[in-house]
Amino acid sequence: MAWLWLSSAVLLCAAALLTTWKTAVGPRTLDRLVSVDTLVAVIMCSLNAWAAFSLDSTVVYGATALSLLGFIGSLSVVRFRVKDKRRRP
Fold it and tell me: Is residue 43 part of a domain?
């Protein structure tokens, strides 16, 4: 059973690293927004995996608050974002 927890931790860390890279490199604002939302989802999955591993349900409240903040943050960024400037080739 330990291999299951280890493999899920490795996959979640890889997802977080790739998403962080996409946030830094993303060519447009909406690409960065989607990658930040994905990073929030990966963090929520990590918190819930930790809750399942440690049998401690106190982190579930943090994951719930994080999901609400991520949703409201995404809505506000989409609502008030400025259009990207087009680059000429």
Answer: yes
* Token pair 């490199």 in the structure block, residue: 25
Give strand ranges (E) for 1-89: none
C-alpha to C-alpha distance for 65 and 43, rounded to whole angstroms? 12
Report pLDDT digits (tens) over 40-85. 999 999 999 999 999 998 998 988 999 898 888 888 877 777 776 7
Asked if the structure places residue 61 within a domain, the reply is: yes
CA 9 to chain centre: 15
- The number of beta carbons lying within 10 Å of the beta carbon of residue 74 is 15
Q: What are phi and psi of 67, to 5 degrees?
A: -65, -40
**Structural domain total, the chain:** 1
In this predicted structure, what is the pLDDT of residue 28? 82
